Amino acid sequence: MSKAAITSLALLKVNWDTYQRSYTDNFAPLAAECIRKSNLPVVTLADVQTRMLSDFGLRIPAHSLKVILARLKKMGYVVQKHKTYIPDAKKLEKLTIDDTRRKVLAQHEASLQNLIEFCKLRYNIVWSEQEAEDALLSYLKEHDLDILIAATEGTPIPPVERPVPHAKFLVNAFAREISQSNPTAFAYLETIVKGHLLANVLVFPEVSAVTRKFRRTKAFFDTRLILNALGYGGPHYQDACKDLLGLLYEEGADLRCFRHTYDEVYGILDATARSYRRKAAPDLPASLALVFPGSSESDALLAMATLESDIARLRVKIEDKPPYTAHYQISETELDKHLQETIGYTHERARERDVDSLSAIYRLRTGESYFYIEDCAGMFVTTNTSLVKVSAEFFNSYQPPASAPICISDHHLTNILWLKKPMTVPDLPKKRIIADSYAAAEPSAELWRKFLAEVEKLEVRGEVTVEQYLLLRSSLEVRALLMDATLGDPDVIVEGTVPQILEAYNASIQAEADTKRKEAESTSLKLRKDLEGIEDRIENTADLIARRIGEALFGAFVVVLVLGAYKSYLLVSLPSWLMYVLIVFSLSLTTVSLANLIWGTTVEMMIRRVQGSIRRFLTGKLKQLFLSRPREVGH
């Protein structure tokens, strides 16, 4: 079932690339294939629904399948008779997707082998093909909980039959790896993620509802989303978050954050500045403990000073909570208790602010029931999927179950927005994949809490230095090593985990230092070879010029001898200037002859000495000109 579901998502993406007309057209070839393969003279909606699940691994809600079959009827592939459908076999044969399906299966098999090999080489975990497929399907369904809240008949992809341990961490680690090293494998992953987004259109009560425009809906963002949009969570989160905000704005929504959310963001920046001042790790949740990795106190102080204007540049307005009104009031005490019991907040103020936000959204809606998020007066957008689920359960007693949720996850909202404009922002799912892969590499609050407890024990016993203590609490490298050691499982934390991570950290630092040393040596060797090459070229050039000058001098000497002989024997009258030249050369020749008689000096020896002087002069000047350039540029 996993293989059928995953490859069907890839088929949906291929269909979308082919047709790009309507979401109904996207599903029509799959429904037509089910009818064709059934070989039945008459089919019912239930027949097609059953085959869609068995052949393609997709659960198509009845209301959506009726629309798809109506589209096939309009295209002439089936004839409707009462509540049954009579296939046109000849026309259906032309709509076959066998070739496309074979190509998708080949891509699927290749990507699956890449995933299996990655897990084996990187984490020494051996998966069968079935386990890898189930893990991949679990990865796709990670945020189905958000969709279930809005769905009327469940999600299109059935539950994973066999949960695979650590699937979330491993597939996200694989996604992060191939996003940089294997474009082909990443393209397939992006394809099935987009197919999953396209499949989710089936959860809408009306398939056409996905194209609705927002009608001045106020979207209020939580603290983490504001931090991400500002870039304090890192560029991978910022890209996806800014696209989300941009799409919401273009679709007509008003971007907002509550004043208490602004205060929380400001408080996080202030805590970060104070931690730099006392050179300690910030006392913040694991996911926000390093909003300024590698920065200083001045960076955090500047961020605090410009926070309001920075938020304004995102087109986000800061808004106070609406006043309390008896008619539109919930029991905040009950909501607070419900959140604590079901989610278990570690920071009381974070829970109080979530209560404030949810209660404020309910008051903004003034008791009205909205059935589409595009029409509602307000919604709270959060990265906390647990908050989405728990708030939906709580508010079911205050509004009809089919109402637009008070709280919606950024994933679900991204899904909806991409479906509205898939061609306008084709890279949004890619950015979401990368952002999720980095988020999955962050320790959960429970894992981080257990790890810090072990660190505290070692610090009290004096088994780690102050420097190691601060390192363990604040290093990004340590967080990554913790996730690699535990695969994100809090129950794996034992007494030996911290020393193991310290040892791995030291080894990685040493390996990094060795790599840098080798790179420096390699660079130095290359520079030496480059310099030697330049010096060789300079010396060769100087030698060539000196030899050419020597040859020219020797030629001139021969010419003078010839002219002297010409003058002596033919008694031809020469110009006076040439006579002077001949006299000078004659005297020089006489001098050379005497030198040769006395010391053995020849013309050739003199020319060689001249060549040597010229070669040394040119070599010095050329080296000064070319080899001193880097120092001048550096200066």
Describe this structure in words.
The radius of gyration is 39 Å and the shape is elongated. The chain has four domains: about 1-195, no CATH class; about 210-440, no CATH class; about 445-495, no CATH class; about 535-635, no CATH class. A five-stranded parallel β-sheet has the order 6-5-4-7-8, sandwiched between helices. Strands 1-3-2 form a three-stranded antiparallel β-sheet. The protein contains 26 helices and eight strands. With about 625 residues, it is mainly alpha-helical. A hairpin with a 2-residue loop joins strand 2 and strand 3 (about 85). About 65% of the residues lie in helices and about 5% in strands. The longest helix is centred in the C-terminal third of the chain and has 74 residues, at about 495-570.
Write a brief structural summary.
The protein has helices at 2-19, 23-38, 45-56, 62-74, 89-94, 98-123, 129-140, 144-150, 167-181, 183-199, 223-230, 235-250, 259-277, 297-313, 332-342, 348-364, 385-395, 410-420, 428-439, 445-460, 466-474, 476-486, 497-570, 576-599, 603-626, 629-634; strands at 43-44, 78-81, 84-87, 218-221, 254-258, 317-319, 378-382, 407-409. It is mainly alpha-helical and 635 residues long. The chain has four domains: 2-197, no CATH class; 212-439, no CATH class; 445-495, no CATH class; 533-634, no CATH class.
